[in-house]
Amino acid sequence: MAVRRIGVMGGMFDPVHNAHLEAAKVAMQVLQLDALNMVPCHVPNHRNAAQASAQDRLQMLRLATAQMPKVFVDDRECQREGVSYTVDTLASIASEHPGAMLVLVLGIDAFATLPKWHHWQAIFALANVLVLDRPGVPAEIDEALELDLQYREVSSVDRFFSVPQGRIWRLQEPKLEISSTAVRENLHSNSQSTALIPAVVADYISSNALYQNSAQSKD
What we know:
There is one protein chain. The chain is α/β, with parallel strands linked by helices. It has a single domain, classed as HUPs (Rossmann fold). It contains nine helices and seven strands; from the N terminus they run βαβαβααβαβαβαβαα. The chain has a seven-stranded parallel sheet with strand order 3-2-1-4-5-7-6, sandwiched between helices. Strand 1, helix 1 and strand 2 (35-40) form a beta-alpha-beta unit. Helix 2 (54-64) runs antiparallel to helix 9. The longest helix is centred in the first third of the chain and has 14 residues, at 18-31. It is globular. It starts with a strand and ends in a 12-residue tail after the last helix. The mean pLDDT is 89.
């Protein structure tokens, strides 16, 4: 019986935009995942709080992924009190799916900050890590993380899944260069945002009068 492969992609999703969805599609396709859990963060540890409520962010994500088979909106961090820690989320998912191989999906910017995360080394005992890298854009990698890269990094799917956890694969994959900050600023100024977010999300934002004030947090 084949071992299930479950992706985990966190973020503020404030709001969800096309680059988030493209990253999810790439992870699903390249890794042949059986499922991808998209997990909105409730209380961030190293950034500003979300401008939209947890329930609004969850609903926008549900609308945006409604036509994406095997992609699931996971509300466990929004249901949990206190700061949302990725290591806790991975441990929770692992307990629900014994024997499954977990993959944490990160953009290169988030990956570069990994040493600032709560119990970050424990993440490698729970999951492999797919890093969606931007070709030609160097990232400032912390020295501690560089040491991990030296013995964890691989360059193929076969080697990535040769062990159940602890591998890092930096996949060079061109991305739509969109940030949630840019989307919110466009919405605040009534600029054209339809190229940045799904139409169903734009409609939800308009109907619920979200993002009337600009915010500075990024994701």
